[in-house]
Amino acid sequence: MTENNNNDNTEAGTGGPERVLGTPSSEAEESVVSSASTEAEHEGPYPASETHAHPEEVQRRGEKIASLWFVIAFLGGIGFLVSYFLFPPNAEDVPAIADPQIGQYSNMLLGGTLTIALFGIGAGMTVWARSVMPHYEVASPYDELPSSEEEKSSFGAFFMKGADESGFTRRPLMRRTLIAAMLPLGLAPIVLLRDTGPLPGDKLKNTAWENGVRMVVEGTHRFIKAEDLENSPNGMITALPFVPHGDGHGEGEEGEYTEEDFHLSLNEKAKSVIMLIKMPDGDFKSGMNEVVETVDGEERTRLNWTHNGIVAYSKICTHVGCPAALYERTTHRILCPCHQSTFDASNAAEVVFGPAHRPLPQLPIGVDDEGYLIATGDFPEAPGPTFWDYAKD
Amino acid sequence: MSKTTQAPKALRGVGNFIDDRFHLAKTGEKNLRKVFPNHWSFMLGEIALYSFIILLVTGVFLTLWFKPSMAEIVYDGSYERLQGVEMSEAYASTLYIDFDVRGGFLVRQIHHWAALIFVASLVVHMLRVFFTGAFRKPREINWLIGVGIFTIAIVEGLFGYSLPDDLPSGMGVRILQGVIMALPLVGTYISMFLFGGEFPGDVIITRLYMLHILLLPALLLALIVAHFMILWHQKHTQYPGTGKTNKTVVGTPMFPGFAVKAGGFFFFTFAVSAGLAGFVQVNPIHLFGPFTPTSITSGLQPDWYMGFLEGSLRIFPNTFDLSPFGYAIPTAVLVPGLGVMGLLFGGLAVWPFLEAWITGDRRAHNVADRPRNAPVRTALGVAGVTAYGVMWLAGSNDILSETFSIDLYLTTYIFRASIIVGPIIAFIVTKRICLGLQRRDRDTLEHGYESGVIQQLPSGEFIEVHKESSQDTVDALLSKPTITSTVLEEEVDDKGVESPHKRKPMGRLRRALAHWYTKDNVSFEGVEPHSGHHLHHSAEEKESAVH
Amino acid sequence: MKWITARRRHPLAGYVVVILALALFGVGYAALAPTTDQAQAQTLAADAPSPEDVDVAEGRKIFDQTCATCHNYDGSGMRTEDGRVIGPDLREVGPAAVDFQVSTGRMPSANPDAQMPRKPMAMSEEDLVNLIAYYNAEIREGRSGADIPYDVPDTAPQRDEFSVNRADFDSEEEYHEAVEEAEAEYEAALEEYEAEYEAYIAGAEDTEMGMKLYLTNCAHCHSWSGGGGALTDGRWAPEIRDASPREIYEAMVSGPGAMPMFADTVIEPDEKQELISYVKTLQDEPNAGGVFDLARVGQVAEGFISWTIGLALIIACAIWITAKQRAHD
After folding, report:
1. Which chains touch B (3 or more CB pairs under 8 A)?
2. What is the count of residue pairs from A and B with beta carbons less than 8 Å apart?
3. B15, burial (CB in 10 Å: exposed 0-12, middle 13-18, buried 19+)
């Protein structure tokens, strides 16, 4: 605004005054006046003083440029239609958009031609508005916003008379009962939402893990043995509980487990997924000596929940539930990639950095007769995002 | 010039047909004569409007194939790489749009780019309105509606992002659920009701779909229509200048000038979205893979408009978490997840009224403030933008850490410090700059502008020749309002008694705020345009310009 | 300068300056930003080299010269007096670890304290074979650590590996013949490699398994695209676009740096093949959404583009539409 100073005659030695776009100069005003010599016969919708028409040659040039843009847009539009039919959606032996490379060509052709078509129209219209149409500087009044006192009091009197006459203000019994009648209906929508879901109950606190449940590597559907991790002194793997359908002996031929048996619902996965970490000898820290339960009068620590240096933690971050899986074997940190809560795997998954409220719950594990890793119980507290009563039974 | 004064017969026929039924001739003409100030910053809101239209159009196209179902299927479609993979029908149908529908990929990408641009344009539009004081009376209601549109747009975007059920989008829902769960007492209940059971359940996408394509767009549309009608009725604000007053607006009339410009602008907006969609891959869900609650990727991010929340979740420490009687109140989730959102939208909504309360200003304003002329407001705005920016950057701290090889934890500490220090510095610096600009304005008014021509005086002194500013500039500069507050003026009432309100804490707070809001300003009082030395100005004058 | 002075008050001058500044910033960043080293290790997927082909004595020489400074002559590693590790004990890491570290150019390393980025291999392929032979013969303790997965394809052969030296030939003709021969040899080797690579990738059939394994065990550090990610203390998980299948395999079994191990008993070789095939296929896939993939960084880059390109272009159009006009322009 203020930068648009009128800098006529600024330049010494450049000859004529060099003016800048956006600075109505005295000259320009003169020419408005000169064009206003035709004022008498001005036919535009707005007063001549507010209409700055362009000279005919400018308009003619503008028309040509605008038309050129429209022609380009037209060709772009045709190109778009052609591109559409260039590649079939799904066909044998011909390039189809299901192939990502062909899809890319198709996308770029369609997108490119569409862009040309749209931009052409936009540019053409802009040239039209700027070069062919006059430049308008129309002044128009803002509406007076507050109504006049007279109008206001007239309205007020009218309204109150009507309200009084209707009886709404004068008959309280009717008014109050009407309001009372509305109340239950207002609550109805909230009540109706009750069946959108079950009550939490203890669903969030129990998972599929229980004593004897075997572990499967997610993805491979293979049980995992404690000795499998022997060869990787710094190993880590994501595992899920194995909950076969039916009698637990597999429903395939010869009692083999089928694909179906390894299937676990997303809800269950979201709660029970664990990370198995093989800790090198002597790396466990004091936090693992915390007494966590008493079995037959014998105090048991977190170390009793590990097996041969293998420790299992819930993989779901206690902050807001992302899989906290970024395990660094050198520092034993488990980092959540979402908000960088960091847990110390060697020290009962204690929070060492970031926003998480509590450690990752540890799953008590052991081995069965065949050497397969099993859980020896459920998580001691609810896994996943921390909620109000996660620690209560 | 052609001299058409009478419309062609066909047009007259249609016009008469409508007018016979609606009596529109007078209103029609008045509206076609509506004037739009001619400045690009008044078109920012239009970007949002046009993006919204693009979103509606492309969104309708996408619904023709999208299946909002979480039923698990094994993919057997045309996209070869993922054949045999377990996924939800929502994800599979999105793959169908990408690889079986011609132009489907393009439209999906236009939809996504337009959404990103939609929210971005809302932000810049709001910033323009804020910094020019265009939210002041009589436009407070429209500002509130704007805040509503902004809020809903963000939620709308988050839900849309979640629909394809790909890996990052599912994680967005997971984080949402985690934040809900953190609510004391009711968290688990709300989560259970929203998800129809445990996370992820099998209904959430269906429900988000309903919200995304029906409820929220309907709300948005209603608010946008209201926003537009109010704008139409009250007319735009305008920047100060010759002939531009609180009573008169100057600019391009709707018909024919602005209609063509605005129409062209729609095509530009669409063209840019389409151009990006054609060549820049956005949200390639077919590469991410389907959602599973057990997997995650590094560098996980939400779309940009959720970035500030992601960032606040990342930098807020768990130091203030409470555990009364063994119950958990994870403030490290609640404060950044919900508090920050409340602070942002609450602050935006309250500001027009707070400012009016501080200044006691009850006048209607149609001429926009130049940001420098309201230094405290401008500085406050920049401080807010800084806080937002810090949180936004913090939302990508892992990307920053990796890209610029900075320690990940260090980035967190830096952001924790800058969220406190940054806005304060921004406030001070901005206010200084505003006052400096005011001083320069005063100089320009008095002496004209520096012409860039150096002259040597007979005395041997070199000076830069100053030229007179144009009338428009002078008028714009002269329009500088004096920042005052009626709170400070009402020292005593007309009977000479001090108002009892002033003694109360509220009154004292109000006076303190009023003082803070008005104290620093460069006075233009008594300045006559071009009254100073035309040839040069000396140091003393500069000093005297400082109030 | 006059030209600039004349135009510095132009209404568009401010925008021009901003655009120039942005461009300058962009170019500056591009110049300063670390570029990815193109990996150029070169072996074919093949069987283990036979004892006749290796020279253990030569391997000892290389070890003593390049490794022993930090890892000691017997590979037992070295520490400073206060117990800080200079070079770790190599006796139990296994040849896969040695092959991984050397072939990705991370070893020999100039700075034992810093994480090494991927670099071109510092020694020749032959030297590496000898070094590993020496390692197996003298340093490795029994069968500890993982073996090199020779049946997994390594990086493609490079043309310069087959180059001929003009000085070795008397006549121009002979030289040309040799060049052509070398070229043919290279082509053949490349073809052989590609066939092997294809076979390895195509040998994986279970995308579901490969994807699950990759996304549940790898993506949280290396990202869904294999683009890498940030770790704690300034470490990072490297991007694995340039990594050959064999290098990925070796990384899994040897656990370089902070990376945990994934032994063959936990993820079996054919399961590893599924995993490697999944990520390699993903990385090789063209971008169906357009040529610009924003380095597959994802939402941060998309947000950046939507502001700097998307919104900026639209606003530029708005400025064009509303730019002030002289009355008769």
Report:
1. A, C
2. 349
3. middle
CA distances from B431 to A3, B374, B379, B424, B514 (A): 21, 9, 5, 11, 16
To the nearest 10 degrees (0 to 180), the angle between helices A100-127 and C312-322 is: 20
Mean pLDDT of C181-195: 90
Lowest mean pLDDT, pick from A119-128, B148-157, B193-202, B498-507:
B498-507
B402:C293 CB<8 A? no
pLDDT, tens digit, for every residue of B18-70?
Answer: 999 998 989 999 999 999 998 999 999 999 999 999 999 999 999 999 999 99
Distance from CA of C265 to the nearest CA of B (A): 22
The alpha carbon of residue B410 is apart from the nearest alpha carbon of chain A, in Å, by 11
Question: What's the whole-model pTM score?
Answer: 0.89
Report yes or no: B308 and B105 within 8 Å, Cβ to Cβ.
no
State the pairing for strand pair A362-363/C78-79.
unpaired
3 state SS of A170:
coil
Residues of B in contact with A264 (CB under 8 A): none
> CA of C156, closest CA in chain B: separation in Å?
23
Q: Flag whether residue C224 sits within 8 Å of chain B, measured between CB atoms.
A: yes
**DSSP element (H, E) containing B69:** none
Residue B177 in contact with residue A384, Cβ under 8 Å?
Answer: no
Instruction: Judge whether B63 and B213 are in contact, CB under 8 Å.
Output: yes
- Chains with 3+ CB–CB pairs under 8 A to A are B, C
The DSSP output letter for C14 is H
Residues of B in Cβ contact (< 8 Å) with C292:
279-281
> Residue C233 and residue A236: Cβ atoms within 8 Å?
no
- Residue B171: closest C-alpha in chain A: A322
Residues whose CB falls within 8 Å of the CB of residue C52, separated by 6 or more in sequence, listed in order: none
A-chain residues near C212 (CB < 8 A): 218-219
Using the CB atoms, write b or e for B149-182: b if 16+ within 10 Å: bbbbbbbbbbbbbbbbbbbbbbbbbbbbbbbbbb
Q: Using the beta-carbon criterion (under 8 Å), do C288 and A330 form an inter-chain contact?
A: no
How far apart (Å, rounded) are the C-alpha atoms in residues A105 and A89? 13
A103 φ, ψ (degrees, to nearest 5): -55, -40
Interface of A with B in 362-381 (CB under 8 A): none
Listed residue (B339, B347, B308, B341) closest to B135, CA to CA: B347
Q: Any chain B CB within 8 A of the CB of C297?
A: yes
CB pair distance less than 8 Å for B278 and A107: yes
Cβ <8 Å between C258 and A328: yes
Residue A311, φ and ψ in degrees, nearest 5:
-125, 145
Query: Is the CB of residue C231 less than 8 Å from the CB of residue B409?
Result: no
How sure is the predictor about B483, in pLDDT bands with cuts at 50, 70 and 90?
confident
d(CA C1, CA C179): 56
Phi, psi (deg, nearest 5) at residue A362: -95, 135
Its ipTM equals 0.89
* Alpha-carbon span C298 to B531, nearest angstrom: 59
Neighbours of A133 (CB within 10 A): 20
Q: How far is CA A136 from CA A40, A48, B236, in A?
A: 18, 9, 17
CB contacts under 8 A, A 232-291 vs B, are: 238, 240, 266-267, 269-271, 273
Q: A301 by DSSP, 3-state: which?
A: strand
Question: Is A391 within 8 Å of chain B by CB?
Answer: yes
What are the chain A neighbours of C329 within 8 Å (beta carbons)?
A: 21, 54, 58, 131, 135
Q: If we measure between CA atoms, which residue out of B37, B135, B152 comes closest to residue B354?
A: B135
